[in-house]
């Protein structure tokens, strides 16, 4: 008797009850635990096959049915199931035909039933082996397909680095032909020179860690330079000996270029390429630490372009940007190589120069003034620019950069009050007399209490439906004393003097009330996005402040979005992430604003509870000026899609920009192409018109 077997399902095709009992008894005697079904007609047999038997045992002669027919039905329906013919003498020809048709065995009822148990055991074992082999072949096929369709280059080599296999992506990345690589030393994996040190490091790493990783510059077959990340692992046999190496290569050129761009923008202004405030602070500290001469002072020269807004509005932002670049170049040329020129924001610049005395600072300021006397030439016109300059000295006026910039800023405003295009040094008496900054500060206090601010709403369009899906709330200040005051002027002052939270609270409440009114009147029920600054996020009661406004106004949380700059998002990711996750749990959307402008850490991004990225307008404006902007915009879109985030492209001003974004899968956009920021009444008309008439597919200017 054989070893006890697992329970098997037997389908017995037999019309003789005694013969059926003999077959079942023989199987049980062999040690099988049976689940059996007995049938004698073709209809019963066909139905029983649906129960997935492990084996079919069939008589040959049956009323209106025979074993050969049963075999053919089985092979057509379940060819992997073993079939044993058990019958009286049917002759050699029929037996041979049955075996050719696929019968596993043929036994005589009277003389061979003792062989039935071993035959069934053998056939079940072989069927199991066949299934295992088929499964292995299927896994191998799937693995091969996965390798061939992988975006990473995959290679397998012998221990002496002769190629056994490369996939399609490997050939696409390196430019090498697979047929020329097989059985030859691998190329495109190691950097130029195929150095012994590299091979030594490879084997040392494999011996100690079982794997190896290196990133380096490499050349494709056609000579093109690219950045390659290579990972190699060892495959060992039963004795622990390495018998194959398997590795991957990834073209990380675009990723590294993008990271380099982000690293650059972390310390430089996107428009001018000059150091930003962050780098200026670093340079200031280095200069102070490296200057041991007590007779030298550090002069901070703050200069602002006169009437730059008029130039921007008249000639356009592209001309304005080119002008900003040339301003930076002239400023650098006017000063020494050891001096630092920084672009702080908009049309504001600062320089740090080491001088012996006040007169030296005046000479440097005059050089800057002279540098801008010649007109700035553009293809269609020439532009005359003047600057107002303020100077502060360290340590006479202050001993830290932030305070020095404030002092120089006040001195610069004195220059503007004196008719512009002049130079002023900071004077402590200005604090007593009241500077322009203090006047603006006082006006800001009044504006908050007198409800002087207005909110304009800029639509965010769904690029598929063409409908307004959300709006961004933007503050405006039409002041009786100063006229229209740009947010670029009063927002930094509000942040500097601690008023920004009050202003933000006002904007949040007014925007929420407006959203409730629009919803009530069925004008607009999309999200309203409100900007949240870093100082607000650091408030211990920020969650209570915002939930309090929602409760007070009645706006649903899902109708509100909070826009956070990427610098704020990564400044303290754990703390910021916790606060923002609380908002997300409430249903409030989180937007990362101005994405790509220089502070992002890609490692933090997946951890942050944001659901929307806003591509900074600088990349959109430059789509058709520099290829790198196309690469960056495309990379951000792909990255957002991989993270399951929506994307809003800012600053869309042309149909070609919109068409590019739609083609690349961008879901939303805002900009003057769709609509400028509008006061509530104007936006109400705009939203109603869009809602009633817009059909994206019917508008030729929206069609790709």
TrEMBL record:
State the name under which the record lists this protein. Answer: Diguanylate cyclase (GGDEF)-like protein/PAS domain S-box-containing protein
Q: Which SUPFAM superfamilies match?
A: CheY-like (SSF52172), EAL domain-like (SSF141868), Nucleotide cyclase (SSF55073), PYP-like sensor domain (PAS domain) (SSF55785)
Q: What sequence ranges are listed for the domain GGDEF?
A: 296-428
The record lists the organism as: Litorivivens lipolytica
Name the residues that span the membrane: none
Domain named Response regulatory is located at 9-124
Q: Which InterPro entries match?
A: Biofilm_reg_signaling, CheY-like_superfamily, EAL_dom, EAL_sf, GGDEF_dom, Nucleotide_cyclase, PAC, PAS
Among the GO biological process terms of this entry, one is:
phosphorelay signal transduction system
Q: Where is the EAL domain?
A: 437-691
Its keywords, alphabetically, are: Phosphoprotein
Give the 4-aspartylphosphate positions (modified residues): 59
Is Phosphoprotein there in the keyword field?
yes
Q: Where does the PAC domain lie?
A: 212-264
Q: Which domain of life is it from?
A: Bacteria
SMART domains given for it? EAL, GGDEF, PAC, PAS, REC
